[in-house]
Amino acid sequence: MKQMAKLSEGRKEYVVYRSIPGIGDSTACRLIGEIGDIRRFQNAKQLNAYAGIDIMRYQSGNTQYRDCMNKRGNKHLEKILYFMVCAMLMAKGKPESFCGLLL
């Protein structure tokens, strides 16, 4: 992991990811590995769809069903983002049991 961090230090994305509270060397390197060149996404919606965290809405006429998270996309990236949010919540002093309620 130290080698990956050393190789990534020169990249702009690495510096940006590391500036976010709760993201360490390992998470920043994994994000770069899973997302690749973030500039290939034209907007945040495309990145959300790639990660599989976009909302799926079912609607038929006047009936609207409960929104749920789309289960397609990069499962590794989805897992990294989940643990990243948990680390951020713990850094803010939220209880650890809260992370089990996110998914």
What key attributes describe this structure?
globular, single chain, mainly alpha, 4 strands, 103 residues
Explain how this protein is built:
The protein is mostly helical and 103 residues long. It has one domain. 49% of the residues lie in helices and 8% in strands. The protein contains five helices and four strands; from the N terminus they run ααααββββα. A two-stranded antiparallel sheet has the order 1-4. Strands 2-3 form a two-stranded antiparallel sheet. Helix 1 (2-8) crosses helix 3 (25-35) and helix 3 (25-35) runs antiparallel to helix 5 (75-91). The longest helix is centred in the last third of the chain and has 17 residues, at 75-91. It is globular and about 55 Å long.
How many strands appear in the DSSP assignment?
4
Unreliable stretches: none
Structural class: mainly alpha
Q: How many separate domains make up the residues?
A: 1
Element order: H for helix, E for strand:
HHHHEEEEH
Q: Kindly report the average pLDDT value.
A: 81
Q: Could you tell me the radius of gyration in angstroms?
A: 16 Å
Strand content: 5-15%
Euclidean distance between termini CA atoms: 28 Å
The order of strands across the largest sheet is 1-4
Classify the oligomer: single chain
**Global geometry:** globular
Instruction: State the helical fraction.
Output: 40-55%
**Biggest sheet statistics:** 2 strands, antiparallel
Give me the number of helical elements.
5
